[in-house]
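ok posting inputs for the PRP job
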Amino acid sequence: MHKDCERILLNEDELRSRVKEVALEVDARYQGKRPLVVGILKGSIIFYSDFIRHLSCPVELDFMVVSSYGSGTVSSGKLRIKKDLDKDVAGRDVIIVEDIIDSGFTLANLKALLLERGAASVVIVTLLNKKERREYDVAPDYNCFDIENEFVVGYGLDYDERYRNLPYIGILKREVYES
Ligand code: PRP
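and the output
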């Protein structure tokens, strides 16, 4: 385990089996369809790549980078898009793949935006869900793990752009982000 982690919350086996289980559920829903799978960078990158490998339906891949400074007390009330989709979502079945839902700001706004652009459907798949932090009205359609309000890193998630490459989800030591 990395020295900056207090403990491992979800190990590689737990991640592998739950991600597969959820992906197969999602896959069953899209038989005969061709969804556009939208990854929200950067945090979702590892989850996204593991998730899509369990889909048997034909998929198209696309990505967005959005700012999440709406969470907490300072809210712009509007999503800032740093990198938009390449594809037109009008008439498409969209699957949004996220690493974590915290306040819900990002996904509440993103889902509304994609529906406004004419998506036929928008389904949210998340790896982690911090329910107790929710401030905006949004719920995942598929969620791999409910977690407590802990500072988690690894499997795509960062603190100050570090730890994304850890193969497990760890709880960061308090002294690392409080120093
Ligand atoms: C994180 C995460 C979500 C968002 C969740 O992104 O990936 O997009 O915050 O928070 P919310 O529910 O309060 O909106 P972050 O801005 O940390 O970027 P990253 O994915 O590049 O790490």
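notes: The radius of gyration is 16 Å. Residues 40-43, 68, 71, 98-106, 158 surround PRP (CB under 6 Å).
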